[in-house]
Specification:
Layout (H helix, E strand, L loop, with lengths): L18 H5 L2 H4 L4 H20 L5 E6 L6 E5 L8 E2 L4 E2 H7 L22 H7 L1 E10 L2 E8 L2 E2 L4 E5 L4 E8 L1 H4 L6 H14 L4 E6 L4 E5 L5 H12 L8 E7 L2 E10 L6 E6 L2 E2 L5 H20 L11 H5 L2 E8 L16 H21 L1 H22 L3 H4 L26 E6 H11 L5 E6 L11 H5 L2 H10 L16 E5 L4 H17 L1 H5 L3 E4 L4 E5 L2 E5 L2 H10 L7 E4 L8 H9 L6 E3 L7 H12 L3 H10 L10
Parallel strand pairs: 1-10, 14-16, 17-18, 17-19, 19-20
Antiparallel strand pairs: 1-2, 2-9, 3-4, 5-6, 5-9, 6-7, 6-8, 10-11, 12-13, 13-16, 14-15, 20-24, 21-22, 21-23
Helix pairs in contact: 3-5, 3-7, 9-11, 11-12, 14-20, 21-22
Amino acid sequence: MSTKGAYTEHDITVLEGLEAVRRRPGMYIGSTGVDGLHHLVWEIVDNAVDEAINGHASYLSVTIHKDGRTISVSDNGRGIPVGVVPKYGKSALELILTTLHSGGKFNQENYATSGGLHGVGSSVVNALSARLQARVRRDGKEWSQEFRRGVPKAPIAEVGPARGTGTSITFTPDPQIFGDLGFDGALIRDRLEIKAYLNAGLRVVFRDEVSGANVELRHEGGLSDLLQHLLRQAEQRPLVEPFSLRREGEGLVRTELELTWTESNREQLNTFVNGIPTREGGTHEQGLKDAVVKALRSFIEAHDLEPRGLKLTAEDLREGMLGTLSIYVPEPQFQGQTKDKLNNPEVRGQVEAMVRTALERQLHERRSWGETLIARAVQAARARLASRAAVADVKRKSAVNTRLNLPGKLADCASSDPSVCELFIVEGDSAGGSAKQGRDREKQAILPLRGKVLNTEQASLTTILKNNELTDLVKCLGCGMGKDFDLSRLRYDRVILLMDADVDGNHIATLLLTFFYRFLPGLVREGHVYIAQPPLYRIEVGKDTWWAADDAEKERILRKLPARSKPEISRFKGLGEMMPKTLYETTLDPKKRRLLRVSVPEHAQLLTDEIFAELMGKDAAARYQFIMSRVHEVDSLDV
């Protein structure tokens, strides 16, 4: 009778000591690839940093040796105990390095907080190393012990006198496990710099004998310095002064937070637990997100800032958020040995309550700070709605140097260098004709519009995308709109509104500004939108000529003329009446023209949004109230 495939008591295997780690390394370090290899380094570094976190060390050094596969980690902490543990008949050092779930972190009297409480880190590193040597300085002596694949070569030995205290671990990962993989110096340096940011004042030295790098990392500003580093790295500037929080207690040993917002269309949170980066977040990160959304909603409600006809989502409120959160927990529950995610359920509520209270206080005490964030969220909401309904013909337009698929009525310029090119959006074909003849054809493009464009404040995006004038304009600009807006594809450095100097011209300019502000806010924010100031009057006295943009300027010019002069005053009914040469000299020539750059100061973003909604929205009552509240500013009205 065949016994093939039988399953009996003889098939049961018990893996003793560190054999389980060598059989299934992925269970302990995630993988046997590059990430797993470097996780060995993180385990030893975290042990050294735990000494610093608990006030016993001020120095940490990491050295990659010349072979690129051996690394040393040293600290000036208390030093791993070397005395014999009576129950096991081994030194504490040997026990820690050869036995899973051993160490001093199960007792909070030794470590109030630490990166790992499972007691497997050092022993796992030892098990997966071809060679590991531990050197300990304590009690005026230095001790050493060497291991091969987790097995001690000899008992711990005293090697001589020593000054100070500390631990040094040198190990070479086993090629039987990791193949010929070597350490990545840049990756290790970056991780060490994070440790320096998280532990203000900790001196960290990194040496790479392969590349020759030798750097000292120290950041007295802690998380504040880290936030500034992240801003530089992302090439972003903060919209508001960072919000800072430092707390001890309240359910957590220590909490530190630095938070701001940028113009980026993504949120970026860097979170840490007991000095360990939690790349997948966890309950502490969710608590922070809850706090931000609840605090901002409370601020909106208290100050009646909810935008008309627009619902702000949690994602809108957090868009552009950039921050670093570091917490210290007595008993962290990580998801897996790689500690990428925190699972402690109670931490979510603790972080949420602490951050929400402090953030609400700042919002109410510094209202302009809060209004800037709400204006940022409104911008995100409008961009989100624009992106959702966008169609293919505006998702991605021609590249900067392409001339394909541009509207036939566009008189484009010859240059393909956006930094020197200008687009004049002109009112009507007649004015467009004069502008086309008078322009600098090398650098100036002309796009004539027919009549008044659509009021985009009152129209749905579907309607907007069916409007030929606006879709032609987007095609000309080349940068797309909404979530697909890409400033690098803008074909013109200056987008100039050139309208008649009268009420109708001002109305058309306002309609275009509404479109830019709502659907291409990046153009306004980065200073690419201008309003031309063509003259309304020509004043001639003999051979001298003056140009006046409006009645007030005309009167000022006349008052300065000699008493006996007889000026000849001409009023232009529109740009189409101007000779091409006159239009160039007064309005197109960069040396003589007057342009107004359109900008919205940070403190006025929310007010600007409200004004557009009231003046251009469907609510006639709000528009009437706005006009009547400012009627005293108008000298006369044409009826």
